[in-house]
Amino acid sequence: MQKSIIGLLCLFLLVAPVEGQSLLTYDWPTAEGEALLSDKYAITVSQGGATLVSQVIMSESKDIEIPNFAEEFKGGRTMNWTMFAANFSQPVTVSVTKLFGSGAPEVEVVPSPFGIVPTLSTDGRTATFTLEAADYVAVNFKSSDNRHTSDGVVKHMLMVFAEPPEANAPNPGDPGVVVYSDDSDPAVLNQAQTLYFPPGYHDTRTSYPNGGNLASFANRDNKNIYFAPGAYVHGRMYMQQGQVRNLRIFGRGVLTGRDYKWSKNLGNNGGVLGVDSFDPIEAHVGINGSNNTAEGIIVCDGAFHGVNMGNGNARYERVKTWAWHPNNDGFRPWGENNRVNHCFLHVCDDVFYNKGLLVTETVIWQGFNGAIITYGWDGAYNTENSVLRNNYIIYPQWRGRGNNNGLVASQLDYDMRGTNIIISGLHVDGNVPAIMNLHTNSGKADNNDFQLPPGGSLGFIDGLILRDVTITGEQVSFSGNGFNQTPFASQSDLRGAVLTNGQIFRVQNVTFCNVSVAGETIDEDNVDEFVDRDPATADAIRFCATNPTTSVPLQYAGFQVSPTPTWGTVHYSGLPGGERLTLTLFSATGQRIGNPVFDAPSSGTFDLGHLPAGVYFLRLSGQSGSLTRRVLRL
């Protein structure tokens, strides 16, 4: 009881606003064995003349759980983060100091559409920028000691979570509210209407069985679990049976699974099933039922799926989550009418399943494995009706297309149906291995198994619309198992399957509307460069009538660049006469390299020998339009 009273007093002292000031920072428990205070970054936030320290907390990569096929992601990566709240009646100035290694020559704040331009101190260690809204942004000090791979995977990730003022937080003294402590009796806690985690470190394994599983608290409808600012809780909540409605999990605290072990790796990690390791399809937070809500909290470092809030009318609002290895899916509610708004995810498997989702204003820092949204995996179910609108992908870490990597993927069995995904207003800061990775279950294909499951009826994939999708980087994969990564051009995959009985599992009704990769809009003339389509099992891609066209002007059709790949010099030819033409070389991220060549002759050379390996673009432009050719520098 004394611990709880002290925690509540600390909460009042630490987050009570100073009169006339809206800016709040939170204090986290950082004694040994508790939350890790970052030794990589320090942050202050300022508003209206007040400057506060905003603690930076750190999660360490679970290197032992990273499989050998992703060996390059081992080696001590970290996720660092800070959280503060403000009403943003005035802008908030954020000052970030890099504590490790050397100063950086450049710093970047993404998502880039936010238009945040930081200033960097002369020693390259402190970046300062302004936030005018409660947004989630990543700060990237672009120094050699912060690059984990040669293509720019960030070693020590940093997220700034700017929140609005907290509203309607419960009072720990209210009727029906019980304050958690590690020596609490679960039987008493479970009778409460609201379970309240106060500031401080808590380990639910000391009070709840099954590895600290809080699921028994969800024993009736309309209950609440509140994580106060500064509460750092080790535990999980997975319902193995029963249903609940209107469960609300909310607050500004953290639910960590740092000590849990991946059950597919027990031979290496020393975990014990039922003690600190569980079935990989169990979720860190897994709720059965409908109308359940997660708001404001952080759920991190688990060893299983992510945050699954039930079967219909699930709500996710300003939830932050991250994890490190395969099976770390993101949000996977089932049913229909599910909503995800203004969240952050850094996961290492499929972020979303196509189950009645509307996802908006969400930032995704994708790990090396999984799709942003999948039509599903083999499992005798159908998926349908999702819309992803106005979202952001930052620094995706994919190494290749694999069997389920890319923006949209599928691993459906032959008797399953996946229908109606719309992705609209998506901005990707970085490369992708595939816009689409649509096919049937790869395990069956690898085993030459094209049999319809017994009693099943033929399925299909029907309906994908990609509208206003901007990928700043290239559609590219990488080879290498260490720091040095070699890029090579990749294609999206679009194919169904011809079954043994002659039936065809089809992929159909895929539409592109203003989809661009590295500045080049995909259209009827160049789509085959981007997509590998099996014409026997997949329909041709459609294009919106309003799609801005980059059809090749006839007089430019002879423009060619060779050889590609190249070790240094490329030759261009086929430039027509009769107009003034310009040639410009761009990087894969759209940055101009060197000066344009004005009044370019009909043929000539470009030297790329001084440039690092990667994908580049040579753009021909004139009065008739423009045409871009890719060049791969080895």
From TrEMBL:
Gene3D superfamilies: Dextranase, N-terminal, Single-stranded right-handed beta-helix, Pectin lyase-like. Transmembrane segments: none annotated. It comes from the Bacteria. SUPFAM superfamilies: Pectin lyase-like. InterPro entries: Dextranase_N-ter, Pectin_lyas_fold, Pectin_lyase_fold/virulence, Secre_tail. NCBIfam families: Por_Secre_tail (TIGR04183). This is T9SS type A sorting domain-containing protein. It comes from Neolewinella lacunae.
